[in-house]
Amino acid sequence: MNFKNTCMNKTASMYNLVSCEQLKKLMETDVQNSAQAIADYKNILSRIQQ
After folding, report:
1. Nearest-angstrom CA–CA distance, 48 and 50
2. What angle, 0 to 180 degrees and rounded to 10, lies between the N-to-C axes of helices 21-49 and 2-14?
3. Which of 32, 34, 38, 50 is the 20 to 30 Å CA partner of 6?
4. Per-domain residue ranges for the chain?
5. With 0-12 CB in 10 A as exposed, 13-18 as middle and 19+ as buried, what is 45?
6. Chain-centroid distance, C-alpha 28
7. pLDDT given for residue 1 in this prediction
């Protein structure tokens, strides 16, 4: 989960440096998917710990 979080933060940080609109759209999708994956991981972990 730490790796996924690091990758998401890197993509979000680099977003403003990109000029290609297609790449920006891909980066937005990646950040959204990563955020959802992290939320899913947290949900699974919370169920396991109960």
Report:
1. 6
2. 160
3. 50
4. 2-49
5. exposed
6. 9
7. 80
User: Cβ(4)–Cβ(35) under 8 Å?
Assistant: no
What residue type is 4 in one-letter code? K
Q: What is the 3-state secondary structure (H, E, C) of the chain?
A: CHHHHHHHHHHHHHHHHCCCHHHHHHHHHHHHHHHHHHHHHHHHHHHHHC
Q: What is the mean pLDDT of the chain?
A: 94
Read off the pTM: 0.80
- For 6-10, the CB contacts below 8 A with 24+ separation are 7/34, 8/34, 8/35, 8/38
